[in-house]
Amino acid sequence: MNMYRGQVHAFLGPVCDYSVSPVARQAKYWNIPLITSGAMASDFLMRRSTLYTMLTRVGPNYDTFIAFIAKVCEQFHFSKVFLVYDPDGQNNVLDKLCHVVTDGLHKAFGGNPFVKKYNITSSHAKVVKTSDIKHVLEDRVGADFAGEYRG
């Protein structure tokens, strides 16, 4: 990287969140803009003003998806959400996609000071084996996250 110092005017990419992160952190010190269609995890939004100051995200990101899910919850008056996910789910689309999306939802619902606060209580469970879903639904979701039937 030091070989190109002074010769680079902007970085286009990388796209993978795990690759964008170190480049974006370093771009801050080099004062070189980084433009990517990646950087979709909520950490890039939460630390935009401190750690990722030279990062510009173009295209879709998880923040709009999280806002959409929160609006659905508000529309239907859901005040409690239990997130059940496979941390390696949808790896064929993007490495750790389900983990990254669930982390963003959990932070938003948990009132992280960097993310808009939604009036929703949440908890979560990682389910690696399909056989664990029944246990999670019976023992962890149960009545604590059940709603009132409005039929």
Q: Using only CA atoms, what is the Rg? A: 19 Å
Alpha-beta content class: alpha/beta
Cα-to-Cα separation, first versus last residue: 62 Å
Strand content: 5-15%
Helix residue percentage = 25-40%
Q: Mean pLDDT across all residues, rounded?
A: 81
C-alpha geometry? elongated
Largest β sheet strand count, sense and barrel closure = 3 strands, parallel
Pfam families: ANF_receptor
InterPro entries: ANF_lig-bd_rcpt, ANP_Clearance_Receptor, Peripla_BP_I
Subcellular location: Membrane
Keywords: Membrane, Transmembrane, Transmembrane helix
What can you see in these coordinates?
It is found in: Membrane. With 151 residues, this protein is of the alpha/beta class. It folds into two domains: 2-57, no CATH class; 62-141. It is 37% helix and 13% strand. The strands form two sheets. A three-stranded parallel β-sheet has the order 1-2-3, covered by helices on one side. It has a two-stranded parallel sheet with strand order 4-5. The longest helix is centred in the first third of the chain and has 14 residues, at 17-30. It is elongated, with a radius of gyration of 19 Å.
